[in-house]
């Protein structure tokens, strides 16, 4: 077994390319020709080359670690996003460090400051409600995921929350529904506010009454969503359709509807979840795929690590309404 260390220039020589191009391939740069990338990877495998992470960190003055901050790690949406980022990062020799702000604006700043103090190479952040203007004085690249931060004019990787919520209400109305209930997270969360705005805009355009008793805007988890759904089902005139603005909230709605035997009530979820397509009826969803958002966020962070400046423009991921049955129940059947 050879004791001589394999260097990047050895890989480049074996692949018939420059050390700069070999470095770009090893660091996951997509802007390299397929056949060149293949040659470099074959050279890496045959020579047994390994990136010296400690030397790279000392050379750069930062760690080869990306920090990820989400409101809660237990939320299925963010768990899938973290998994996708990790799958993209590790083959590139980048480690990830995950932290939760626990939906606490006082803790949120401390968590981000703690990661910056560790000299992470970059951050992917889903903000909760703190003022992020302090990042204007920070050189570390940051990409915001799923929602905009307060206090700083930068873009984010998002979906059209307001427009998609409007689309859901219009979809339910097309099947004859007027008493459409809304369940969402607290309105301190920007995505919740936008989705409620889309709901209200659609209801107003349709001329439908907006009733306070049909809006539950503090469902932070599945248990609270289940309780709120049960309360609505006990109303003298319950809703004929329910719009859940978050996949975790949807788990509570589904549980309540099935336990009460009210699967005749139309239901649409903003965000898919594991059993949505096997229930009876299968759940109609806006396919708000966290993996797609996370993949784009990691791509953007990689570009910024390579020197591309941050942009104030959003990257809006298109979403699809997947009609599976629960959102297509007619109002007459749902009210029976």
From TrEMBL:
Residues annotated as domain HTH lacI-type: 6-60
Pfam family, one: Peripla_BP_1
Family annotation (SUPFAM superfamilies): lambda repressor-like DNA-binding domains, Periplasmic binding protein-like I
InterPro entries assigned to the protein according to its UniProt record, in alphabetical order: HTH_LacI (IPR000843), Lambda_DNA-bd_dom_sf (IPR010982), Peripla_BP/Lac1_sug-bd_dom (IPR001761), Peripla_BP_I (IPR028082)
Gene3D superfamilies listed in its UniProt record: 3.40.50.2300, lambda repressor-like DNA-binding domains
Keyword DNA-binding among UniProt keywords: yes
Keywords, comma-separated and alphabetical: DNA-binding, Repressor, Transcription, Transcription regulation
Example of a GO MF term: transcription cis-regulatory region binding
PANTHER family: HTH-TYPE TRANSCRIPTIONAL REPRESSOR PURR-RELATED (PTHR30146:SF148), LACI-RELATED TRANSCRIPTIONAL REPRESSOR (PTHR30146)
Protein name per Swiss-Prot or TrEMBL: Unannotated protein
Organism: freshwater metagenome
């Amino acid at each position: 077994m050879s004791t001589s260390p394999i260097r990047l220039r050895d890989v480049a020589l074996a692949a018939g390319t420059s050390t700069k191009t070999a470095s770009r391939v090893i660091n996951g740069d997509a802007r390299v020709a397929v056949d060149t990338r293949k040659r470099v990877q074959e050279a890496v495998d045959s020579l047994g080359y390994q990136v010296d992470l400690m030397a790279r960190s000392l050379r750069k003055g930062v760690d080869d670690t990306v920090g990820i901050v989400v409101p809660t790690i237990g939320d299925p949406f963010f768990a899938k996003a973290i998994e996708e980022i990790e799958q993209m990062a590790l083959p590139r020799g980048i480690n990830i460090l995950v932290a939760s702000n626990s939906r606490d604006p006082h803790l949120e700043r401390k968590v981000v400051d703690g990661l910056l103090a560790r000299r992470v190479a970059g951050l992917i952040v889903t903000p909760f409600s703190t003022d992020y203007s302090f990042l204007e004085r920070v050189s570390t690249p940051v990409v915001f995921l799923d929602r905009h931060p307060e206090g700083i004019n930068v873009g984010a990787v998002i979906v059209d929350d307001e427009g998609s919520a409007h689309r859901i209400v219009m979809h339910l109305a097309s099947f004859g529904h007027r008493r459409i209930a809304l369940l969402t997270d607290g309105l301190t969360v920007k995505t919740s506010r936008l989705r409620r705005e889309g709901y209200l805009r659609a209801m107003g355009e349709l001329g439908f009454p907006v009733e306070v008793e049909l809006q539950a805007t503090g469902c932070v988890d599945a248990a609270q969503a289940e309780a709120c759904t049960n309360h609505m089902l006990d109303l003298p005139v319950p809703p004929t359709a329910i719009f859940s603005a978050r996949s975790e909230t949807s788990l509570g709605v589904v549980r309540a509807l099935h336990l009460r035997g009210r699967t005749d009530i139309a239901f649409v979820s903003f965000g898919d979840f594991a059993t949505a397509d096997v229930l009876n009826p299968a759940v109609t969803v806006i396919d708000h795929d966290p993996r797609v958002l996370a993949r784009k966020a990691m791509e953007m962070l990689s570009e910024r690590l390579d020197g591309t400046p941050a942009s104030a423009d959003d990257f809006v991921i298109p979403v699809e309404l997947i009609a599976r049955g629960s959102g297509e129940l007619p109002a007459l059947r749902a009210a029976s």
